[in-house]
Write a structure and sequence with these properties.
11 strands, alpha+beta, 413 residues, 48% helix, three-stranded antiparallel sheet, 16 helices, Cytochrome p450
C-alpha cells in the first residue's frame, strides 16, 4: 500500500492515491476528491513529494516565487540536499535543463521573450487557415477510408505538422519527431525506470544531433521560420547559446503537440461516453470553444506538475521545507467543487471555467492559443465531415499517470 501523510487530522485511506495502479490511472478522480476532503497538502512517501490537490492552492503556488522548476540557479545539488542525476543520463538532463520550462529568471525571461514573438495572438491567428485546412484534409482522408484510428490519422499529424512547420523542420524529416518526443516525455512520469531513462537518453542524443545539423544549415541559408529567428537573435548578441536553441526547439516540439494529441483523443472518448452532450455539440457548433475548454478541464492532459521548494513555505499549518518537491495535482484542481459547479459533470456549455490545464504564472503555456486553435479545428472538421462518427472498440489507456492519454481511438464514420 502507498504511504501517505496529511496535514488533516484524519489520515487518508492507504493506497487511495497510487499512480502505478491501472485502476487509479483509469479514473483518479475519486481519489482526488478524497485528498481534497482530507486536507490541503499531503506527503507521499513513494515519491517523497508533497501533493497539493485544491484549485486555490495550486493556482497560488504556480505564481509563488518561493517555488521553482529548478533550484540550480541558487543551489548546488549538495546544498539543496539532492543527489545529482546519474552520469549516464546526462544527455537528457542537458537537453531538458536548458529549455525554458525548466529554467527560472533571468534565463527563463530572456528565452521566453524571444520565443513569445512566434506565439503572439496575431501570429497564431495567421496560422488559423493553415491549421483548419490541414484538419480538413486529415478528416477528409479518414472519411474516405470509412474510419480508422483517430490518434494516428488526425490527432497526431495535425499538431506535429503545425509546430514542425513553425520551427522549419522539413516534411521529409518529421517521421522521428513523435517517437523522440514520446521517449523523452517518459522521463516526466513518477520514478521512471532505467529502461525508460535509457530510451530518453537515446532520443535526446538523436534529436540533439539532428538539430545541430539543421541549425548549421539555417546559419548558412536562413529561412522564414522560428529556428532561423532564434539563430539571428543568437548571432546578433549574447542571448541564446546553441544548447538553449536546441533545448527550446525540442521543448516547443514536445509541448507543442503532446498535450494536444492526448486532449483530442481523450476528449472524443469522453464525448462518446456522454452521448447527450455529443448530440448537443452536433446540433450546435457554436459550443465548440466552450467544449474545448470543458474537455480540457474534465480530463486534464497533464495531471501533475512539479515545483522545487526554494524557501520554506507553509500550507494550512504544515511547513514544507526548502529542498522538498511539491506535486500540484492539476487533474484534482480542475474537479474542485469550491470552484466548479457539479465538477464531475461534463458540461460543454459551462460558462465559468477557470481550469488550469495550461498552468499559470511565468510558466503558463506559451502555446495555449495555438493549442486551442488546433483542438477547435479538428473538432469542427470531425463534426462537419463525419457527423455520424462513432467508436468501434474500447480504447486502451496509456500506462502513464502524469501525461494522460490513450493508445489509440478506433472510429467509424
Amino acid at each position: 500500500m502507498a504511504a501517505l501523510e496529511t496535514s488533516a487530522a484524519q489520515p487518508p485511506a492507504p493506497g487511495a492515491f497510487d499512480p502505478w495502479d491501472p485502476a487509479f490511472v483509469a479514473d483518479p478522480y475519486p481519489a482526488y476528491e478524497e485528498l481534497r476532503a482530507r486536507g490541503r497538502v499531503h506527503h507521499y512517501e513513494p515519491t517523497n513529494q508533497w501533493l497539493v490537490p485544491r484549485h486555490a492552492d495550486v493556482s497560488a503556488l504556480l505564481r509563488d516565487r518561493r517555488l521553482g522548476r529548478t533550484y540550480q540557479h541558487r543551489f548546488t545539488h549538495e546544498d539543496f540536499g539532492r543527489t545529482a542525476p546519474p552520469p549516464e543520463q546526462e544527455p537528457f538532463h542537458v537537453l531538458n535543463d536548458h529549455g525554458m520550462l525548466d529554467l527560472e529568471p533571468p534565463d527563463h525571461t530572456r528565452i521566453r521573450r524571444l520565443v513569445s514573438k512566434a506565439f503572439t495572438p496575431r501570429t497564431v491567428e495567421r496560422l488559423k487557415p493553415y491549421v483548419e485546412g490541414l484538419a480538413g484534409e486529415l478528416v477528409g482522408r479518414l472519411v474516405e477510408a470509412g474510419g480508422g484510428d483517430l490518434l494516428t490519422d488526425v490527432a497526431e499529424p495535425l499538431p506535429v505538422a503545425v509546430i514542425a512547420e513553425m520551427l522549419g523542420i522539413p516534411e521529409s524529416d518529421r517521421a522521428p519527431l513523435r517517437p523522440w518526443s514520446a521517449d523523452i516525455c517518459g522521463m516526466y512520469e513518477l520514478n521512471p525506470s532505467e529502461e525508460v531513462a535509457a530510451r530518453a537518453v537515446r532520443a535526446s542524443v538523436e534529436f540533439t544531433e539532428y538539430l545541430r545539423v539543421l541549425i548549421e544549415a539555417r546559419r548558412k541559408e536562413p529561412a522564414d521560420d522560428l529556428i532561423s529567428g532564434l539563430i539571428a537573435a543568437h548571432d546578433a548578441g549574447d542571448r541564446l547559446t546553441e544548447q538553449e536553441m536546441i533545448s527550446t526547439c525540442v521543448l516547443l516540439l514536445n509541448a507543442g503537440h503532446e498535450a494536444t494529441v492526448n486532449s483530442t483523443v481523450t476528449g472524443w472518448w469522453n464525448l462518446f461516453r456522454h452521448p447527450a452532450q455529443l448530440a448537443d455539440l452536433r446540433a450546435d457548433h457554436t459550443l465548440i470553444p466552450s467544449a474545448v475548454e470543458e474537455l480540457l478541464r474534465y480530463d486534464t492532459p497533464l495531471q501533475l506538475f512539479e515545483r522545487w521548494v526554494l524557501d520554506d513555505i507553509e500550507i494550512d499549518g504544515t511547513t514544507v521545507p526548502r529542498g522538498a518537491e511539491i506535486a500540484m495535482l492539476f487533474g484534482s484542481a480542475n474537479r474542485d467543487a469550491e470552484v466548479f459547479a457539479s465538477p464531475d459533470t461534463l458540461d460543454l456549455s459551462r460558462a465559468e471555467n477557470p481550469h488550469i490545464s495550461f498552468s499559470a504564472g511565468i510558466h503558463y503555456c506559451i502555446g495555449a492559443p495555438l493549442a486551442r486553435i488546433e483542438l477547435a479545428a479538428s473538432m469542427k472538421a470531425l463534426l462537419t465531415r463525419a457527423p455520424g462518427l462513432r467508436l468501434t472498440e474500447e480504447p486502451v489507456r496509456k500506462p502513464g499517470f502524469v501525461i494522460r492519454g490513450l493508445e489509440g481511438l478506433k472510429v467509424a464514420v
